[in-house]
Amino acid sequence: MARSVIVTCAPTGGIHTPTMSPHLPVTPEEIATAAIEAAAAGAAIIHLHARNPETGQPDPRPELFQEFMPKISASCDAVLNVSTGGGLGMTREERLRAAVATSPEMASLNVGSLNFGIFPMLEKYTQWKHDWEPAFLEMTRDFVFKNTFADLEYVVKELGQGHGTKFEFECYDLGHLYNLAWLVDQGWVEPPFFVQMVFGVLGGVGADLDNLLHMHTIAEKLFGDAYEWSVLAAGRHQMSFATQAAMLGGNLRVGMEDSLFIGPGELTPSNAAQVRKIRTIVESLGHTLATPGEARERLALKGADRVTF
């Protein structure tokens, strides 16, 4: 019998800017509302970033996370997953601050360095809500998203071993799967592993179905029955790749971190709308959505009673 599908929702992220959508959650209240609504729609895991409530700029301050994480946990049972990717250009220590302060059940971990180009989005807009937005996008023309082996060791020891937090291992390319296998070989992380395969970011693996199938094949060889796999794809590829993941027996991620749209040329009015859309697709394929409790059991999480928010 096919297992239920774990749906992750990433409500705001650190990539899109306020000019790009009036629906992008920015303030702690907006992020909390978006997360609670996504959980009610069927998301078992909520992947969280914070933003400066005045400018919408990605912001690593733990006090901002503490403004919305307690509200979310008080209103739903979803697993709260704190980003350690933060915002492009942040230092390793800045990226880790919120997760160390909140000691969540889950945190993301980008498992390799890559060129991370979002500068092509500059061409789509001529006026901006905030001065920081075009400079932020342009910066990525000459930017490497740094996740060295030293960085990986630091994070898994500081957060994983130090706090009992499990990771959403974000793999943007084939080599990142082997980086994760290296971490496993060192004995620094324990199964089950949650592998998030990321497609369609400029600088990472392209959103081509052959790439998804190959990465899944390699992950099966490397991790066998010791892992859960999930798929996210950027922009217009979001729903099609999420559907493919469900069809192949995997899990999936949606949310406005990955795409601001719900259909061709149509901005999504909310994160919950994306969750409801993929839920309809998943259920039409004969699958069910995993509850937060099922996700906790399958991923061997420490439990919501062992966090500090």
TrEMBL record:
It comes from Nostocoides japonicum T1-X7. GO terms for molecular function: 3-keto-5-aminohexanoate cleavage activity; metal ion binding. This is 3-keto-5-aminohexanoate cleavage enzyme. It comes from the Bacteria. Gene3D superfamilies: Aldolase class I. Keywords: Metal-binding, Transferase, Zinc. Pfam families: BKACE. Its cofactor is Zn(2+).
